[in-house]
Specification:
By secondary structure, the chain is an alpha/beta fold. Helix content is about 30%, strand content about 15%. It contains ten helices and 14 strands. The protein has a seven-stranded parallel β-sheet. Strand 8, helix 7 and strand 9 form a beta-alpha-beta unit. Helix 1 packs across helix 10. The protein is globular.
Length: about 350
């Protein structure tokens, strides 16, 4: 039996692409000035929603929305979605549902992550940043502006990626896509995982380790892809990065973060840079987003700031996964990528 679907999202054109894919789908598009955003940034104030919007949300049973929106909505009014049975998230990460104060678990509806689509774009971003850093593209741009031929001598001093090691913290779909891209350039790849895996079981990863210091110490580049859970929040805080310093046998690696910003706080990150535990930080995610203007990270030459755009949800990617889950929902079958309220992801 067909079920109506409410679409309440800051991502443009989702309803249009869904109807192109499934013209008979029953859609209710909820548009409200209280919800906006761009890339991976959502701007939402549930207190200013129109009464008509509240009525539409109150009757929906199936909803497509960002987890940030859902969490804020329920925190503002826990009775705002009394009939909701299933929410399809537009993001892979659903940590706002678990970090928002006032939400008691388990929630009385199912939620599914938007997974399986972000690996390739985040891998592209990661390799682009590694190559840009290693080849010093920013210095070339600066030299060009000054009309100075190789004025910055470091543009002629770089390492081949095939001589470098990339440690990947988190080897799910996204982490393995990054590993695959790195292997295409001949990099050695180390995968840090919570539970042990046999080496050689996945060709993209040369070696799996469960010991975090080993992954940090042996890397020339570290990329964090871990989700935000009780196990990963603050994982790299304090002196965790110290093992990567050259004085401790490490390579003083470059740290990239495409996972979640709360894996390391700003104080620990700055200390890691100041003490030479890591040589640079290339960040797409932060503890607080948007990054506050007063953050010292903005003015550090050893930090690259990317506004959470390494992998964004594009409307064209939504229909395939949503319709698969929609058919499963209508047939009372198990949904793909369901959130486990007891585990936090």
């Amino acid at each position: 039996m067909a079920v109506r679907v409410a679409v309440f999202t800051s991502i443009p054109n989702i309803a249009t692409t869904l109807l192109e894919h499934a013209p008979t789908l029953l859609l209710d598009v909820i548009d409200d000035p209280g919800l906006g955003g761009y890339g991976g940034t959502v701007i939402f104030d549930p207190s200013v929603l129109r009464n008509e919007t509240r009525k539409q949300l109150a009757v929906c049973t199936v909803l497509i929305a960002e987890p940030t929106v859902l969490a804020a909505l329920l925190a503002y009014d826990q009775h705002s979605l009394p009939n909701l049975k299933w929410c399809q998230s537009t993001y892979a990460g659903v940590d706002p549902m678990f970090k928002t104060l006032g939400l008691s678990m388990p929630l009385p509806f199912s939620m599914t992550r938007f997974a399986g689509k972000f690996g390739p774009p985040i891998a592209e971003w990661t390799m682009a940043q590694i190559i840009s850093h290693e080849r010093n593209f920013s210095a070339m741009r600066s030299d060009q502006a000054k009309k100075s031929w190789a004025g910055t001598r470091t543009v002629a001093s770089y390492r081949y990626l095939s001589t470098l090691t990339l440690s990947i913290l988190g080897c799910g779909d996204i982490g393995l896509c990054i590993a695959r891209a790195a292997k295409a350039f001949g990099m050695k790849t180390i995968g840090f995982t919570k539970s042990s895996r046999e080496n050689n079981c996945i060709p993209e990863v040369d070696e799996f380790v469960t010991d975090l210091p080993t992954a940090l110490q042996r890397a020339d580049y570290i990329v964090n892809v871990l989700p935000s859970t009780t196990d990963t929040r603050g994982l790299l805080n304090g002196e965790a990065l110290a093992v990567a310093a050259t004085t401790n046998g490490g390579n003083c690696p470059v740290f990239l973060n495409v996972g979640r910003g709360d894996v390391i706080n700003e104080t620990s990150l700055s200390r890691g840079l100041d003490c030479g535990y890591i040589s640079a930080a290339i960040l797409d995610v932060f503890e607080t987003e948007p990054l506050p203007k007063e953050s010292p990270l903005w003015s550090r030459p050893d930090v690259v700031i990317s506004p959470h755009v390494s992998g964004i949800t594009q409307s064209k990617d939504v229909p395939e996964l949503f319709m698969e889950n929609y058919e499963r929902y209508c047939d009372n079958k198990e949904l793909l990528y369901s959130v486990d309220w007891s585990k936090g992801y």
